[in-house]
Amino acid sequence: MPCPQRYIACNAIETSPIPEQFAVRQKMPKILYSPASPYSAKVRMAAAYAGITYESIIVQTTEDPALLIDNNPLGKIPVLVPDEGGGVYDSRAIIQYLNRISGSALFPRNAAKRTEAERLEALADGICDCLLVCVYERRMRPEEKVHQPWLDRQWSKIDRALDYLVANPPKLPKKIHAGHIALRATLGYLSLRFGDGWQRGRSKLTRWAKRFDEAHPELAALLPAA
Ligand SMILES: N[C@@H](CCC(=O)N[C@@H](CS)C(=O)NCC(=O)O)C(=O)O
User: Fold this and answer.
1) What's the CATH fold of domain 5-101?
2) C-alpha 61 to ligand 1 mean position (Å)
3) Does the beta carbon of 91 sit less than 6 angstroms from any atom of ligand 1?
4) pLDDT of 65-112, one tens digit each?
């Protein structure tokens, strides 16, 4: 599904109807990302929800491109590069940055509600951290060096967190926050990498994701993809 023009996907500048030589390049922040990355999906969805126009640039982290390394010495994505330069990372710092420049579009102002939103974001990101450990363990190590007990430990954390979310289902109000966006991005990554097995016995969470997508199709279009 093509990315809506408003969010300026990576190829939006090339597909502009205005010939390149006449186009006035509008200044806007860049988001360095990869389509499959869950943290990248979270920040792109959050920027879109907050109405912040950005240019998306796909980077291959394995190749350590200068654009990435110059803006994040850790060589990880996502990175937000503001007009004035100086990369902002990691994804939670980017979310806070987006929240500031959008006049609090991503978090409730009420202190208790904000803590709740930040906790949900941390839980969703924490699930992603465990998922990434599993993905990298298999991707980076030779088969005989994969340490199954380490993977099992990650899965017990993932299962516990998902079960917690089933027992304490997040609401899905009309005005969502960064915690909701983070959770949707995480569930999208889970399905992308490991299929929909996580949904078994977790219909509340499955329905939550479906309702999210129905209410925010423009954000669902930015979910992690192969
Ligand atoms: N805590 C970081 C995690 C970022 C992260 O691990 N990103 C992955 C892609 S999803 C990455 O860049 N991996 C390449 C690497 O670690 O070299 C965040 O929230 O941004």
Assistant:
1) Glutaredoxin (3.40.30)
2) 9
3) yes
4) 999 999 999 999 999 999 998 999 999 999 999 999 999 999 999 999
